[in-house]
Design goal:
By secondary structure, the protein is mainly β. The protein has nine helices and 33 strands.
């Protein structure tokens, strides 16, 4: 609970008091804002407490759907202004509050807000908020049958990172853990932002399924997990609704639902199951399905149908038996979208870029990926390549080094298929602008294609422009 107390201290609301025209009464008007979700906070219970006698709640109201609230007939004096909302509990925060002095008649502006994600993450995880790549997952773990908090439960967040080394492209699996308190609340720190992790809760034989959770750039992700007693399933069963399914002994859960197109049309014949479960249901003509004898708690529901994009989503299976509606996208719409976005790089196909990319032996940057990075210069793209290090000296010369098995070295650089001899990266920044690049390839020595291998034996960086004919052959 020490971490939560630290967050309470950092959970000060933002108060702005702006006196307006003088009148006979003072009216407080303002908004409550959720800085984590970057949205107005509806349903917040706003209170004014006498600063000299905190047991007296003098004024209270609730924010509307746009986070707005009004407090009328407020006398001059000193108050403690704050608000209560279930979202604060999910973040491990106490009541967001601070002192407020009303010293003018008329209308006074009072805005309240949840602290910024950086402050919350820093207070929760006990480290400086300047680590932009570190995020946190916050939530509660609850028993799926009793809905009671699950104390001393381990929450695990795992993810994979790609490693570009001398022996080729590989990956490593990383994980972070957190432990629930007496109220079932948990925080898992040190997860990557703008990425996704696999989240799971384990407490002895009580466990949730593994679900995928996106961690936003704003650092804080919220997700409650439900755990159920582990249920072992030995055989495969296929159920066609409304056919009955044999009942398992012991704890089991039933999930009902429908599978629809994005326009609401039923999809018959779709196969539905939970990840890591052998129980399969097939939808009937109305798109309905029933999964019986399955483990409860938070699980990943997998839906497959010919002609539709596979759908994987997290579901919470409790004794409340809430049905689920799965909406699926057609393959035609999905492929049309890909075709439009991929119709441009015909030049990349001509130089073999697309063929080498399909082999997956190096790190590739397409023109669309480079555009999304918004780089100021070409070397900004290379900074994102695993195993590549860029340094700048006092003369603003950029030096590239690639990690090897024993020591770092300088890779060969090719521009439109021609090797640049004795060229510096700073020269390339002046020669090629990021918007002129059609694609980039980065290889370790062992994975460099034979036609681009050099005597240096230290990997290769290949740059392809959109219109190579307009660039003269570089000379020095």
């Amino acid at each position: 609970m020490g971490a939560r107390r630290a967050v309470c201290c950092a959970a000060a609301a933002i108060v702005v008091a702006l006196p307006a025209a003088r009148g006979q009464i003072t009216r407080l008007r303002g908004r409550v804002f959720d800085s984590v979700a970057a949205l107005p906070l509806a349903g917040a219970h706003v209170e004014l407490v006498n600063a000299d006698d905190r047991s007296r709640i003098l004024f209270s109201t609730t924010s509307d759907s746009l986070g707005r609230f009004v407090l009328d007939s407020v006398a001059r004096g000193h108050y403690i202004a704050g608000f209560i909302h279930p979202m604060l509990d999910s973040l491990g925060l106490a009541i967001a509050q601070r002192l407020l002095t009303v010293a003018a008649d008329g209308e006074v502006r009072l805005d309240l807000a949840v602290p910024s994600p950086e402050r919350i993450e820093g207070a929760l995880c006990g480290r400086a908020a300047d680590k932009e790549t570190d995020g946190a997952v916050i939530g509660y773990v609850v028993n799926s049958h009793t809905l009671a908090p699950s104390e001393s439960t381990t929450v695990i967040a795992g993810w994979a990172e790609i490693v570009l080394g001398k022996n080729g492209v590989g990956h490593i699996v990383l994980s972070r853990t957190g432990m629930t308190d007496a109220n079932g609340w948990f925080v898992v720190c040190g997860v990557p932002t703008a990425s996704s992790v696999i989240l799971r809760a384990v407490s002895g034989a009580d466990t949730s399924g593994a679900i995928e959770l996106d961690i936003p750039k704003s650092r804080i992700a919220r997700r409650n997990l439900y755990v159920d007693h582990l249920l072992a399933l030995d055989s495969t069963r296929v159920a066609h609704v409304p056919d009955s399914v044999a009942t398992q002994s012991g704890h089991h859960t039933v999930l009902n639902g429908w599978v629809r197109t994005e326009d609401g049309v039923p999809i018959p014949g779709a196969r539905v199951r939970l990840f890591n479960s052998d129980v399969v249901a097939v939808t009937n003509d109305e798109g309905a399905f029933e999964l019986a004898g399955i483990p409860g708690g938070t699980q990943t529901l997998m839906t497959r149908a010919i002609g539709f994009v596979p759908d994987d989503r997290a579901v919470d299976l409790t004794d409340q038996h809430v049905p689920v509606v799965v909406g699926m996208l057609t393959i035609r719409r999905f492929l049309d979208t890909v075709h439009v976005r991929a119709s441009r790089p015909t030049l990349m196909s001509a130089v073999g870029f697309d063929d080498r990319r399909r082999l997956g032996s190096g790190k590739f940057f397409t023109a669309s990926e480079i555009e999304r990075m918004h780089p100021h210069e070409l070397t900004d793209v290379l900074r994102r390549a695993p195993g590549v290090t860029l340094t700048t000296d006092n003369s603003h010369n950029v030096r590239i080094r690639m990690r090897g098995e024993q020591e770092s070295c300088t890779p060969a650089i090719f521009l439109d298929g021609k090797q640049l001899i004795n060229w510096e990266l700073g020269d390339i920044n002046g020669l090629v602008q990021p918007e002129d690049v059609g694609g980039m390839e980065v290889y370790t020595p062992a994975m460099t294609p034979a036609e681009f291998r050099t005597r240096q034996g230290c990997g290769t960086v290949m740059i392809w422009t959109r219109t190579p004919d307009r660039l003269a052959t570089p000379r020095r």
